[in-house]
Amino acid sequence: MILAFNGSSIDGSTYTYVVNLAHDAPSWLDSLVSAWSTYGLALFAVLMLVGWWQARRSSAQAAMVALAVPVIVVVAFGVNSLFKMVVREDRPCQSLHVKTLEACPAPGDWSFPSNHTVIAAAAAVALLYVSRRLGTIALLGACLMAVSRVWVGAHYPHDVIAGVLVGTLIAMLLTTLLRRLSDPLAGRLTDSRLLRPLLVAA
């Protein structure tokens, strides 16, 4: 048997309160939240694509930062996966044995921090460096994603809070570093006939 951390002592009561709210909520609301929790990350992919398309019309430096957003998200996901393996926190539905909107994951699918929230937060923060408008939309989406993961019963509140922190810190660090390197790199990349269309609009 795999030894795992039980996070219910941290905010299990808050988690249970939210899950009970979900049970008492109208079915249309639960369906909406569940759909967002499951498929909402697609919005961030669309925003990244729009951000890159718009950045090409601004400058090669901006386009390069926009192209890096998906890479930053993947890095954040990778770092978060390491945290999950180190902490090894059981899902709340396993520790508290409550009925949830989302099917309870199998043992070994660790809870802390929330992958969905890390991805959403990293994408939102990185997009803020590309477009304030797109970044603001993504930030709102990231907040909704964090809430939805607790609502459907997949995570404790502290899981999603940690996810926001991990995604935000990694995105800020990598994007700030990239912006410092963007001027010389963009100049070299735009000299390439193969890569220039990715950075500069025709």
UniProtKB/TrEMBL annotation:
<keyword id="KW-1133">Transmembrane helix</keyword>
<feature type="transmembrane region" description="Helical">
    <location>
        <begin position="160"/>
        <end position="178"/>
    </location>
</feature>
<keyword id="KW-0812">Transmembrane</keyword>
<dbReference type="InterPro" id="IPR000326">
    <property type="entry name" value="PAP2/HPO"/>
</dbReference>
<feature type="transmembrane region" description="Helical">
    <location>
        <begin position="62"/>
        <end position="83"/>
    </location>
</feature>
<dbReference type="Pfam" id="PF01569">
    <property type="entry name" value="PAP2"/>
</dbReference>
<keyword id="KW-0378">Hydrolase</keyword>
<feature type="domain" description="Phosphatidic acid phosphatase type 2/haloperoxidase">
    <location>
        <begin position="63"/>
        <end position="175"/>
    </location>
</feature>
<keyword id="KW-0472">Membrane</keyword>
<protein>
    <submittedName>
        <fullName>Phosphatase PAP2 family protein</fullName>
    </submittedName>
</protein>
<feature type="transmembrane region" description="Helical">
    <location>
        <begin position="137"/>
        <end position="154"/>
    </location>
</feature>
<keyword id="KW-1003">Cell membrane</keyword>
<dbReference type="InterPro" id="IPR036938">
    <property type="entry name" value="PAP2/HPO_sf"/>
</dbReference>
<feature type="transmembrane region" description="Helical">
    <location>
        <begin position="36"/>
        <end position="55"/>
    </location>
</feature>
